[in-house]
Amino acid sequence: MRPPEWLGAQWGVGEAMTDNKTITADERLRQEFNQWAEQGRGEEMEHHHISITEQTLARMELKPGQRVLDLGCGAGWATRLMARAVGGGERPGQVIGLDVSDEMIRRARANSTDYDNVMFVVGSAERIPWEENFFDRVLSVESFYYYADQDRALAELFRVMAPRGELFILINLYKDNPYSLRWVSELKVPVQARSEQEYIDLLKAHTFEDVLAARIPDLTPTPEEYSGKWFKNAEELREFKRIGALLLIARKPDFRSPPPGYEVY
After folding, report:
1. How confident is the model at residue 90 (pLDDT cuts 50, 70, 90)?
2. Neighbours of 149 (CB within 10 A)
């Protein structure tokens, strides 16, 4: 399945032609986020997103022994937070960090040598290199709107999640927070911009159960004077934080997915 035609036309998804060479959406993401990694922006994301992520982790109620996927893990900072939560006990849990950027994965591995229950894998959200019915929890922080084929990504998540496993998608860029849409024209890669209701409908269309959405405010202090480029003043920044990120929560039914008709390794 492909995204609705209006979405592709508005924000530009799929493949692009550069110097007569077709570049896939995943390759565009890999190139862009390799540059981010080289600039240290992967580690920088922890500072920007720690507040909304910690609130999300509290809702996930992670327990020792669980198996977790960090989809779009970047430099691995959230992966490590979850590794602490599921570690310990007689049978420590495991967290897999997956990212399309090989440079992000390299940095995540280098920064995680003290953790024996994490693994970082280079791969696409549209073709997750993992077995079926494995993960008890999935977290995706600020990456899902970059996926050109969100339908395909959800189908893959459904496949690798364990029966009754829970999915948590946390995103700052969505239609119901108009301030976030200012980023679209500035990003060098296409993004998907859906509303809260559109995301709910999308998850239900993929047969996820108990679908709900919540707003997660950014609780970090706002300076009295704002000097960045995204907001006119500090008041706009406060309003952006108050509206908050969109957290989508869904559960896979009590169903074991069969192996796909393609190799995943």
Report:
1. confident
2. 21
Residue 4 confidence (pLDDT): 32
- Which tens digits make up the pLDDT trace of 97-149? 999 999 999 999 999 999 999 999 999 999 999 999 999 999 999 999 999 99
The first and second tokens of residue 107, run together, are 């940095």
**What CA–CA distances, in Å, run from 105 to 26, 49, 97?**
15, 19, 8
Global confidence as pTM: 0.90
Q: Which residues contact 173 (CB under 8 A, 6 or more apart)?
A: 142, 145, 180, 181, 183, 184, 191, 193
Q: Under DSSP, is residue 203 helix (H, G, I), strand (E, B) or coil? A: helix
Whole-number pLDDT of residue 38: 93
Output the CA–CA distances (angstroms, integers) from residue 130 to 57, 142, 265, in the order listed: 23, 21, 7
Q: Give the Cα separation of 202 and 225 in Å (integer).
A: 39
6-29 burial, b at 16+ Cβ within 10 Å, e below that, comes to ebbeebebeeeeeeeeeeebbebb
- Structural domains for the chain: 36-251 (3.40.50.150)
Separation between Cα atoms, residue 218 and residue 51, nearest integer Å: 6
Residue 66 structure tokens: 């669980």
